[in-house]
Structure formats: C-alpha cells, structure tokens
Specification:
The protein is an alpha+beta fold. It is built from three helices and five strands. The radius of gyration is 13 Å and the shape is globular.
Length: 98
C-alpha cells in the first residue's frame, strides 16, 4: 500500500479528502504510482502528466523521504519507506513568480 498526498486542488478534483492509499502492481516507481492514481481517479488523467508523451507537467513536483524525485527516471524504484507505506509519496504544485 502506497500513501499519496495530493495538493488541495487535485484532492478537490478527485473528490477525496486527506491522503490516498493505492495498491501498485509490480515495483513501486513514480510511473507505477501515477498509473495507479490515474486508474483509480480518472479525473486526474492529464493533470500530472501529458496525455500523449506522459511527461511530467511543468510546475508539478514529486517528493519522497524529503527528496525531490521530479527529475529522476520515472522507472527508478521509490525509496523503501515509501514502497512499504511508512512514508508518503508527495505530489506538490511548484510555486513560481517573483
């Protein structure tokens, strides 16, 4: 069971409150977590990744165990505490501006 924390606007879109718990088939990776998230909450499809290229959308960041995984390969294994459910996988909307 992987715990996912979504930003407030995506929780509203998915109609959930608090964190989401997902069963991921195969190894726990960013890609497999996003696949499971979009399968369970189809309204999130296209919000985190481009529909065609499946690349991360600008201003969306992924964190686990206090590390930014946004630029890591999407098929790299997630840290063990996240894969085991001890720590959450965070999806964060980046802030830009000046």
């Amino acid at each position: 069971m992987i715990r996912v924390i979504l930003p407030a606007h995506l929780r509203t879109l998915a109609q959930v409150s608090g964190e989401v718990e997902l069963e991921v088939e195969g190894p726990a990776t960013v890609c497999s977590v996003l696949d499971a998230l979009e399968a369970r909450y189809p309204t999130l499809s296209g919000t985190l990744r481009d529909y065609v290229t499946r690349e991360r959308r600008p201003f969306v960041r992924f964190f686990a165990c206090e590390e930014d995984l946004s630029h890591d390969p999407v098929d790299a294994p997630l840290p063990e505490p996240v894969a085991s459910g001890a720590e959450p996988f965070l999806i964060v909307g980046a802030i830009a501006g000046g």
